[in-house]
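Lay summary. Proteins are chains of building blocks that fold into shapes, and those shapes determine what they do. In this project we predict the shape from the chain. Here is one chain we studied, written as its sequence of building blocks.
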Amino acid sequence: MQQHAEAVDHGIATPARRREERRLERRVDDVVDKRRFRQRVERKVERRLSGHAETCGVDEQRGAGGSARAVVFGLIERGVARIHVANRSFARAEALRERFGVAVQPARWEERDAHLPAARLLVNSTSLGMAGNQPLEIDVARLPAGAVVADLVYVPLVTPLLATARARGLATADGLGMLLHQAVRGFSLWFGIKPKVTAELRALVEADLK
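And here is the predicted shape, written in a compact code that computers can read:
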């Protein structure tokens, strides 16, 4: 232990130090993602979510990673009592329950539509719907009229999922807001200045994405 402490103090890139740095980086990224998800989506769902509300989240096979953890953590902090997480790997969905507790209800991928009628919020944390990828296949028509649909994908800004939700008259939130708020933290760490996410900044980034 003493040798490890000396290695860190002198800046030696030991395997133990690299592992610790990666762990800390992942933890910082998780915290940042959780805050950005809440900042972006909370404005959309403030009047629609309550402590007894249900949420359905879909996460990809390689997932139950940073994005899914950010969503789950943010919703639990908001007081959402039940969060259904559908993953192609049921074990990964179960891992979120082990980490965050009984509010997380693991669901098998083929069951993802079954929980929609009671959901106030649907979140896509997969890469499905991203430019060049297949769209997310989910029956948005089963969501209640007051539901909100959020997609963490931001290329394109209006994914097939969001387009379908809007056609139903549902409120939506795209992934660009989370990206911008996440960039605030990185910019402030690098340059010591905390920029503001404004409508003008969003418009600039939107134009660049088109």
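What the prediction tells us: The beta strands are 54-59, 82-87, 104-108, 119-124, 148-151, 171-173.
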